[in-house]
Amino acid sequence: MGAPLTDPARVASWLGLGTFTDLPQSEQDRATEVVGTISDLVRGEARQDWAGIDDAPPDVSAIVLMVSVECFGNPDRKTSVTIEEITRRWKNGDLFSASQLSTIRAYRPAQSSGLGTVQFTRGLTANPISTPVGGGNPMVLYDGRGY
């Protein structure tokens, strides 16, 4: 596992669990593992080798934090839980949202916007091509302008 792309202590702060050091050691370890795993997935998706928090772009660190919070709060990726008459539902879907993936993939090296041009030639000479016509002027078959 590579270095985390966001501080695992931010997971506890985001969830309102107090300071990171107030959490039991097992929860600190779990938060560190979640952030590290999500960081590795983001590196792979972006095809980047960011060394850590200081090396990663701020928007990437924010995405790692948001997805880590989701995984930390719902480690089984459940879509709903019912306790007595109360049901809590979570959005069912992929680990990363479409907008998060778009942001992450924008950091891929040598990425194209999808638009481009292609230069080509027809392989014809620039010299006019003509053929003699009996009893008249030669007929021009190709005028050399490339049409």
How large a portion of the residues is in β-strands, by DSSP E? 5-15%
Judged by helices, strands and strand pairing, the structural class is alpha+beta
> Which regions contain 5 or more consecutive residues with pLDDT less than 50?
none
Report strand order across the widest sheet.
1-2
**Helical percentage:** 25-40%
The count of strands amounts to: 4
The average pLDDT value, as a whole number, equals 81
Rg result: 30 Å
Shape, per Cα inertia axes: elongated
Helix and strand sequence:
HHHEEHEE
Distance between the termini: 59 Å
Give me the number of helical elements. 4
Q: Main beta sheet, described?
A: 2 strands, antiparallel
